[in-house]
Amino acid sequence: MKTITTLFALLLFTSHVCAEVQFRQVEYRDGEQKLSGYIAWDDSIKGKRPGVLVVHEWWGLNDYSKKRARMLAEEGYVAFAADMYGDGKVTTHADDAKGWMSQITANEAAWQKRARLGLEQLKQNKLVDDDKLAAIGYCFGGATVMQLAYAGTDLDGVVSFHGSLPPATPDQASNIKTRVLVAHGDADSFIPAERITAFKKALSDAGVDWEMNIYSGAKHGFTNPGAGDFGMDALAYNEKADKRSWQKMKSFFDEIFSK
Hints:
By secondary structure, this protein is an alpha/beta fold. It is about 40% helix and about 25% strand. Helix 6 (about 170-175) links the parallel strand 6 (about 155-160) and strand 7.
């Protein structure tokens, strides 16, 4: 009897341990370029659920981006962290990051295509309800999810965290089918005030459903606890803005996925 009880307890323990957030690397391609993404999900949840694409900062698909994917999985979503640079390459050097980002953003159509390839990886996952999709991005990733919106991608919502906020052309703005949420730091010296004005005006003129939350004292990179490690005065973590913007995103998702 003691052996049976011990075995039963062990089975319960094993079940508890296995029922948690899982993650794995996903290899895919953009033509000849190999891409290496990262998918996360909670295997204790049964059935299909909304999917969220995560697009990294200009540093590449590093541990921070993967952490955000796992956090989304903990919230009940399937999250796919896309690789925008290829081969999963990352850096801590601003010159490298700027060069890689510039290579991607120089060709807008190719930029949008690579982002859509990540979205397709998410949609193909058997746990994803492909009628309920969103995309979030940080820094360069924030600009990337806006490019998805400008391309008319069928999403329920996009969220830009300290993104570069590229203003839409009238044609791009008219393509937008999704709702837009922006989290921006009031002390972000990377983004000129006139760009913010142009960004908002383009969306408003096109009748886009958008919202921008501006956090006092927050610099560029305010959601990343490691922002201060890169040796750039313009980057800094802001815990209050990080927590508030994440909560705002969760409320946004509750609303857009309630249909």
